[in-house]
Amino acid sequence: MLNIDSIQNGIVIDHIQAGKGMRIYELLELDKLDCCVALIKNARSSKMGRKDIIKIEGDLAINFDVLGFIDNNITVCTIKNGELVKKENIVLPRRIKNVVKCKNPRCITSTEENLDQIFVLCDEKAHRYRCLYCEQAYKSHE
Predict the structure, then answer these.
(1) pLDDT at 48
(2) Fewest CB within a 10 Å sphere: which of 64, 91, 112, 136?
(3) Which residue, among 83, 88, 85, has the nearest Cα to 64 in the 3D structure?
(4) Cβ neighbours for 128, distance < 8 A, ≥ 6 positions apart
(5) Residue 27: what pLDDT?
């Protein structure tokens, strides 16, 4: 069995749906960090069967909208001096900004530079968003 040490100070992103950890890693740009980051894929879980986990050593601000957009069942644990100090359950964000790009080639965001990509939640059950500018639908589980 693989053994990953606990962290003393940092963040643990837990209960990620199996297979989605790498997408979160990319969207949060964790490859650009100058600290220890562990991505554990397909870890055994009594609740979920399999899950992904990301451990980040150090103090870091996390974009909770990215996490909620990818998987709103994620838990974020803040660790200080080896102890759990805060545990947050992530919710589906009502609005996301610069997380994904609009797929409509006629959308103003495709032609105008430096225009934020903004999507608004339109169907909570289906996790469906719409582009603020052109109404193009985007499902968070695509």
Answers:
(1) 83
(2) 112
(3) 88
(4) 121, 122, 137, 138, 139, 140
(5) 87
